[in-house]
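Possible race condition, two jobs.
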Amino acid sequence: QVQLVESGGGLVQAGGSLRLSCAASGRTFSSYYMGWFRQAPGKERMFVAAISWSGDITNYADSVKGRFTISRDNAKNTMYLQMNSLKPEDTAVYYCAARVSITSGYRYWGQGTQVTVSS
């Protein structure tokens, strides 16, 4: 299994940027397909972005396309989410998650990091 720890959240003004990190330990990081999700207060957890094992395939929720960039560094066992042009509606707890294949569910989750965007 793999353990995931998010960091990099905080308070930022609208239009600003943040970079989230997800550090992995345990089983080989490069064997996992990784994703970012977020959950706003009173709402369901939603998909944000995902990246393949090698990092050559990515996909994004429509709401963040063109503003967020997902990436990973397998040598550092770390995944990133660069968030630019942040909006108040991006305010949420952000979670990273791992799954063993593109057809399986996300089995492993981090504890989350809070992102707050002020208007």
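Job #2 (started ~2 s after job #1):
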Amino acid sequence: QLQASGGGLVQPGGSLRLSCAASGSISSINAMGWFRQAPGNERELVAAITKWGSTNYADSVKGRFTISRDNAKNTVYLQMNSLKPEDTAVYYCSVKRYTIWDYWGQGTLVTVSS
């Protein structure tokens, strides 16, 4: 029900854009977001955006990543610039309808390496 795409291998300093489309079967979406999980680490929130356009970011990505959303298409994007090796992780999109993140995409791998 959530289809993510856009991951891959990129050199440090490079850019990638992730996309995630929610199927029409998911209704009443309040917020959409991106999480990531690196090996040995817990999953962490990278960025989120509400249906009204309010955003929040992890401190580690502020100024480098930008989250945006197309409400008509139920699609969320994550533009990642100035990528660092520590950004390497599996990135997951998710949606929140009420109080919890209750739908998850399959994950897309981002590898930042020279």
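The longest strand covers residues 89-96.
Logs attached separately.
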